[in-house]
Structure formats: C-alpha cells, structure tokens
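Regression check, fe (iii) ion case 291:
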Amino acid sequence: MTLLDQTLEDTRATAAATGASATERFRADKASLADTPPERVSTLAREVLEAVHATIRRHDVTYDEFNALKAWLISVGEDGEWPLFLDVWVEHVVEEVNSAQRAGSKGTIEGPFYVPGAPRGTGSTTLSMRADEPGTPLLFTGTVTSVDGTPLPGALVEIWHADADGFYSQFAPDIPEWNLRGAVVADEDGSFSIRTVQPAPYQIPTDGSCGKLIHAAGWHSWRPAHLHLKVGAEGHQLVTTQLYFPGDPHNDDDVASAVKPELMLDPRPAEDGDGAEVVYDFVLDRATTEG
Ligand code: DHB
Ligand code: FE
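Current build output:
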C-alpha cells in the first residue's frame, strides 16, 4: 500500500491528512528537479535571502519573532502543507510570468488537487458523482479552437472541482475516487459538453500551519467557488485554468489570488429547468517550436 492509499484510507478531512495526500501527489507527478544551472540557483537563492534580510532590517525583527518563524516553518513540513502554502501564496506569480506571452485563453494556478488519468468521455460526458450528489446541476459546454479560429477536434478537456461541501475527491475521506473528476475529448467541430454540479466556495485547511498563519495575521482562508480545467490539443500549448461564478463573495479577495476577469462564467438557468448551464470557449496558442 502506498502512503497515498494509506492516507486516503484512514483520514478525516484534516490539514495533516489533506497535506499528506497533496505532498504524495506532488512527489508522484512533479518532484523531478529541473536541471537548474548553479549560476541561476545562486542568483535566485541570494535574491530571496536578500529580500528576507531587508524585511528583518526594515522591521527590526526580534529573536522571539525569528524563533516563531523557525517553529512555523518546521510545522509546515510536518503537516505536509508545503504544496498548499506554495500554491496559495506563490504559484499565481509563477503562472503570471510563464503565461505573459500567450494570446489565447487565460490560465491561472493549478493548485494542489489535480490528479492525472481521470475517466474520459468523447464529445459529451457526465462526471462521476454519487447517486445523491448534493449541489445544483451544471451543464458546461464550449468549443476548443486554435488562435486562428480553427476548431481542434480531439482536444482534451480535463476538469476537476470540489463538491458542494468544498471537498475534493482523493484529498478528503469518504468520497469515491474519481468523484467530480473527468475528461472529455472534443468532437469533430471542437465542441464538448460536461454535466456536473456547481462547486461550493473552498476553504483552505484551517487546522494546520497555513491556518495558523492566516489566524495569526488576521487574514481569511477562502477561495471563491471554482472549476479547475486543463485544456490541451496536439501542436498547442496546454492551458491550466479555473473558472469562477459571478456573485461569489470571495471573487474579489481570493486567498490564492487566482481570479481574473476573463475567467468569470455567465451561468443561465438550464433550458430543461434543472440547474444552470454555462458556455465557455477555449482558445489555444500554438506550441512554441524549439531552437
Ligand atoms: C488550494 C486549494 C485549491 O482548491 C486551489 O484551487 C488552490 C489552492 C490549497 O489548498 O492550497
Ligand atoms: Fe481548487
């Protein structure tokens, strides 16, 4: 049994359990270190340290404060909350820098809860959900095209999101493995259709180290309700993004700073009277050719 299976098996939705799952997930998918040349490591490490030194000087940081920082940094690792911390407070700037040259659909942070390999449909799909899945039904349709307007049949639209209680399958207990996670391959005209339920606003775990920081600083722990997506097609750049719902009280103060005006949905009452429907079209930049 892997540590991931184990944490899934005996968890409650605690920060430590969510953090352990997020840490394992990160190790499995992304932990291979980039081959960064020593000069670049030196520059980046030195500048981060200089920023820390400048903050200490500017604010006359005391030994008690320095030791509180040490204790907190130790506990972030013990709680497995480095993925959460970095995705909430750092990733949005990495995304900004790396997508600055794009002309197509806006991306935003991936966050810690993506799992590759979700069940896949063609053209239209209904995400796996429990028989009594709470939440407003949501029909999500759209097309995938290239920046020149050409439809991209065969494009893959992956989607994952929290349930109506704000929990993600595989990171909270007692939720079926692929609940509210799926993928759909776009039709001949680049269109796709996904049936799901509207997610709830999401609160980052408050009982661990990230929560301790939020509490100590008097911040809040909320992200607005959001759908996560990855949209990719052959010869095109993968877009990792999120879509948001108008009127959410946290659209303007997302703890993860990941909301952009282009990512706001415009849901309408569903034609069949059951829930909401929404259209969002994706435009992909061509892959950059190397050399
Ligand atoms: C976190 C959770 C999310 O669902 C998300 O989109 C971004 C960050 C987090 O807990 O770190
Ligand atoms: Fe999320």
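Comparison notes: The radius of gyration is 20 Å. The chain has seven helices and 13 strands. No diff flagged against the previous build.
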